[in-house]
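Usage

Read records sequentially. Each one opens with the input sequence:
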Amino acid sequence: MHSWIHHARRKMGFYVQALILMLLAAKILLSFVGSVPQVPCFFIFGDSLMDNGNNNNLVTEAKANYPPYGIDLLDGPTGRFSNGRNIADVVAQLLGFENSIPPFATVKREEIVRGVNYASGAAGILDKTAEHLGGRISMNRQLTNHATTILRLVDLIGNGSLAQVRQYLNKCIYVVSMGNNDYINNYFYPQYYQTSSLYTPKQFAKILIKRYSKQLSKLYKYGARKFGISGVGYIGCTPAMMARFKTNTCVDAVNAAVIQFNTKLAYSLGDLESNLSGAKFIFINQPLGYSSGFNVTDIPCCNVLTTISEGQCVPNQIPCSVREDYFFWDGFHPTESISLVDGERTYEALSPFYSSEAKGSFPVSDADFISIF
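and closes with the structure output:
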């Protein structure tokens, strides 16, 4: 009797989950069919959660331009660390852009007016993060690439005026998702890095936030005013991190370090907003590892490597068939189903930037921030 009830509840949960995903997909389609984007441009900085092809031509272990990645995309493997769309794709479509924001590596001259995706798999706030994997585009290098884009915009739309371009950029949305690799491929990887023996989690978080604040301030100087900043996910609950620590449950030490980082990040964003005239910062909480409605939350959909490219899909092997039932696509990255949900959350969080009724104040109070953890 109890097993029948459990089966019925699980089946009902699957139908509810499927309905939610269909409604989200329909909303995404309706958002850009025959519409004008809600903002003039959208710029993306980040790591593999946002990367859509910037690592393809790098000499690196951190790339995803081979099967089974992209199995649910019409274009196949594009460099996205997913079976399909990632969060950046979903947000772009919900904002009304007809196509995904192109990667810096292949963006065409006329496309940069609508935005550029600079994200790079394995990228970190610190330049040395993930250096054992080979090539990757750190946050500092992504800022350099954005400076290149701005110079191109001066010729393209600014009539030679940098001030005119900055006024244009003031109206754009900037989403930044950094910090995951500074823990995955630095602090909690003592085989390659000494940071965990040199600094406590509190000290390391302070170092990261100090560097990150300078980087965001540089974006402000370039013309950015509307910032959506993603917190680090609960990476202690990823299959690859649990395998690294030889446990089948979430790694509490990792998640505790992440919470320290996110807490400091939220306060630093408030300080930046107070000190940078006209800037608005929104903290986007993405607690990767905790979500209801997905039956398989502790193992990846594809078979994963255990070499230096730990957690990435084994090339050319067949993944799970019911991908919409899985939380994780590989050892670290979510399936497209999760990206649909997180992309919707991110889009809603960014609403002060595209809603004419919004006041645009910093949305996370001390009490609210404590409650989300």
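Summary fields computed downstream for this record:
- The chain has one domain: 2-371.
- The mean pLDDT is 88.
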